[in-house]
Structure formats: structure tokens, C-alpha cells
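Subject: Sanity check before I submit

Could someone independently write out the C-alpha cells for this chain? I want to compare against mine line by line before I put it in a report. The sequence has 288 residues.
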Amino acid sequence: MTLSHTTEVIEYFRRKADGYDRVDEQVYWRLSDELLWEAMSRYVIPHIPDKAVLLDAGGGTGRWTDRMLRHRPDMSALLFDLSEHMTRHAEAKAERGGYGERLSIVNGDLADLVEKAGDRKFDIAISFHNVLGFVRDVRSVLQQIAAVLNPGGQLVLVLPNRYHAVFFNLLTGSVSEAESAAFDRRGRFTSDMPAMHLFTPAELVGALNESGLPVAISTGFPVAVYPGFQETQIAGTSGLVSDVFADQSAYDRIKAIEFRLLGEPGLAERGNNLFVVARKPPESPARS
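---
Independent answer below. Compare away.
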């Protein structure tokens, strides 16, 4: 990142840090999290080896590192994030979880990942939501993640969908941001966030292939229900979202629809989020 952009990103997450985990209170993001965990359970977790080491690249407050370590008591992890304000909350989760040496937390720029990771290697790397959108050079960061993955290791990405960014900004009356997303492949969802890279499934698959990480799964979620403006804020629910999720019964039926559609590759372009799993090729056996 350039210094000015790095400063802008750090300041953005400084403002967000203390309330960031309140996203759990919003019905739309609860559904999104359930879909992400379902996708992890179907496509990722069965392929994680025993005593695996996890890299959470841009892990922030540690929501997903914490969930993975609770689910897999044999796993250890490195949470790597630019923002000290965010990782303070990850440290608190680590203390509550009693993770001790199972979890290391390092502050730094993903542009320096290989240097900061030292000789550590990982069996799985995750980078969820807008993290790669905020880096200066996406391909360089992907190459660095590939370099620290063990052969056969997995990279799991959740990223902002360029097509949804166009739709969302038109829906909320931000035509200039829709133009930026459509023409420049950069944009934002609120005026207070830094502009970020936006991705299409094809662009992402190409970048991963170039980084030596062939794609195994490319899809998106949620695909049937989209967020409104209020879902871009720390708290609150947009009227349309509230109407759709009228009660628990409605929520359960919509979740069943989303679960049924989850993983279909033709729906990647419709997802609010893109979900991609890439796997580093295993080492070829030595010839005699």
C-alpha cells in the first residue's frame, strides 16, 4: 500500500474496531455467516489435515480464527492484520478461549507477509470479506500467501463482488460509485470507507492461477437476498431486509433456499460475496 492509503485504511478500522463484532446482531449478516460456515463445512474443513496451522490474513477482531480454533482443538493459527485496534479484540478472544501458544497475533501489512511470517508455513489460509480489496497489489499478496502455504494447502477467499457493487450503488442512489465499480473496478459501499478493488469471478480465478493456486470452488453468497444501506453500518436493519426476514419461520425458509443454492458455480456473479477455494498443488514425488 502507499503510505496515504495505508493510513486511510488504518483510520477506517480504528473507527470501526470497537463496534465491529456487533455485526452479529444484524439478521442479514447472521445469514451470511451461516452460509460461510456451511461453505467451509462442505468444501474446506474436510480437507484440513490433523494438527493444521491456519493463517488468517487480515483477521481483524479474530471472529473466524476464534471459530476455527474452537471447532478444531488440534489446530494452531497466526492472525495477521494491519490494525492494532482490531487485533486488540482478537487478543481478548484469545484470552477468553485460553488459546495460549495455539494462537499468535502479528500486526503488519500483507505486502510484507513472507518477511513477517519468517519460517512459518500453513496448511490453510483464509482471507474474508474486504481484506484483499484494500491491498495495493492483489497479485503480489496472493503470491506471498502461496509462498507460505504448504503443498496441498488451501486458500479460502471471501471478496467483494464487482457486479453487486454496481447494483448496490445504483440501488442506494450512488451513481458515481456505480460508475467507478463498472469502469474502474474500484469503489466503495459507504462514503466513509476507503476505495477498494472489486472482483469478478473470472478475474479472481485468473489471478489465483497466475499465483500457482488453481481454483477448486468458485461461487457466491447470499444470492437470493441482498443487503440494503443499513447493513453497511455497524447496527440496524434496512426496511426491505426486515420485511423479508419477517420472523424466524421466514428466516429458516430463506436460509434453506440459500443452502440449496450454495456452491452452484453459475451463481458466483449473483453473490453479494464471492467465495473461492484454491489449493496449492502437492509436491510431485521424487523420481528414482
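---
OP: Matches mine. For the report I'm noting this point. The mean pLDDT is 91.
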